[in-house]
Amino acid sequence: MILSIVLVMLGAFCSIAEPAKILYVLPFGGPSHYIALKDLGLELANRGHEVHVITPFRENNPPPNYHQIMVQKKSPWEFLSQERPNIFTFTEYSFSKYMGLLYQIGYMLNELVFESDEFLKFMQEDHKFDVVINELFYQEPFYLLAHKYQAPLVLVSTFGNSMKTNFYGKNPLQLNVANHEWAVFDPTGVVGRFWNVYCSLYDLFMHKFVYMPKQEEYARKYFKDLPQPVPSLEELAGNASLVLMNSHFSIDNPTAYLPNFVEVGGLNHVKKPKALPKDLQEILDKATNGVVFMSLGSNVQSTDLSKDKLEAFIKVFGELKETVLMKWEDDTLTNIPKNVILRKWFPQIEVVAHPNVKLFIGHGGLISLLETINAGVPILGIPVFADQYLNIHSTIQNGNGAMLEHKNINEHNLRTILNKMLTDKRYKEKALEISTRFKDRPMNGLDTAIWWIEYVIRHKGADFIKTPALKFNFLQYYMLDVLLLVLAVALAPLIVLWKIVSLFKSKPVKKNVEKKKQKRN
Ligand SMILES: *[C@@H]1O[C@H](CO)[C@@H](O)[C@H](O)[C@H]1NC(C)=O
């Protein structure tokens, strides 16, 4: 008996993947990006892999096989040497202005990383990696690290489907159902669909013909002594062995994906809720009329809300029978109604998991959104930028959410939407249904991501899962060569026929002409 247990344990031990050397490249300084992606690196280390992480965020007490290469931390505003604007001004940005900002961040990231001592030292060291994982967010020059170490490239995104990645990786674009990641309008109506096509084509064009050539220049300036020949960034992007997307068909539009495009929605929130702090537990337990929880995430600070909008919130919250928990960073607020509790910070996963929580009010950032979906709580979204609009539109389509645009925040609109969401039971029913289907899969998001990364390591880049279309040129990819062949085959008999006919026709014509000439003479 004991022997068999030992054998079983040995067997289990042997089946653990061999520890691999992994480089995880996360140089972007957005806290929400790091929160979404850090678990992947830490968990790879927990499973025995030797992980090197390039990041501006330091992890305290990581596992010993988790090595941090620190780069400078700068917010986008410091990048652009600008004051941090009121974040809600983004809701007034045009699409092209917003894209321009993102491209700028992409360019500046190069300088930031290449001026970081730890990174430069790391580049001098002798390393071998089995795989290089890069965040998919305006940091294409760093894909060259995969080439430097002659390792397969894995891309991982904090959001879902990305048009550019589809384009470079030759995944079908599906402009009719797949939405541009930063599209703002409801993508189901004709205007929204037009807008989606416009955003997608604008971004693809600018990315390919303006942004990538510039990044290529930066890449050549900063990366030296690479193995020759050096592939283009576009080739590298298309050649990724794996694209891991933080989306899932149970909550997003189902779309067709090549086998190396894998949905791992919920990379960051597999943790079970811990115990709530005692005082909060008490507040939540006692709130038998229910709880409304409002938190606008790490980018949006509550102090960005204008005075009249804030007053509208406080006024309408005060009218509710529910208890309201509100994340608020500013101490100066007075005259707060009795049922409203302000704190600088709430343990979000734990709060939304409490059965008394009836509604979450957030900005539609994917991390808090997925945590709330997981907990089966309806969502009222006040989107600001990036994928937040799309995320909230999905909850509207799914029936577990509603949107209140920043410009429409006032007492009347707030009262109407809150009353609707707190009394109409369908929101909660849908939220529970969606929570169940979101969790119902063979493996959770993090385990799925790790399984596929180890698969790519085991198969040395798994080139066989990449589409053969990557090798096609423009004519071949759009089947224009086939079209030409079809045209040629179809036209050939016609041409022959036409030749023959014209051969016969030409004689009488000549005769006629001759006759006419004779007549004139
Ligand atoms: C594409 O990736 C594979 C490994 O997955 C590698 O062997 C090959 O050299 C890469 N090609 C280019 C052009 O980078």
From TrEMBL:
Entry keywords, A to Z: Glycosyltransferase, Membrane, Signal, Transferase, Transmembrane, Transmembrane helix
Query: Could you tell me which Pfam families the record lists for this protein?
Result: UDPGT
Return the EC number: 2.4.1.17
Annotated Gene Ontology cellular components are: membrane
Q: Which reaction does it catalyse?
A: glucuronate acceptor + UDP-alpha-D-glucuronate = acceptor beta-D-glucuronoside + UDP + H(+)
Record keyword DNA repair present: no
Bilayer-spanning residue ranges? 477-501
In what way does this protein cross or attach to the membrane?
Answer: Single-pass membrane protein
A GO molecular function assigned to this protein is: glucuronosyltransferase activity
Q: Determine the domain of life of the protein's source.
A: Eukaryota
- Where is this protein primarily located? membrane
Q: What CDD domains does its record include? A: GT1_Gtf-like (cd03784)
Subcellular location, in the record's words? Answer: Membrane
Q: What is the uppermost EC class here? A: transferase
Q: Where is the signal peptide?
A: 1-19
State the similarity comment.
Answer: Belongs to the UDP-glycosyltransferase family.
> What PANTHER family does the entry give?
EG:EG0003.4 PROTEIN-RELATED
Q: What is this protein called?
A: UDP-glucuronosyltransferase
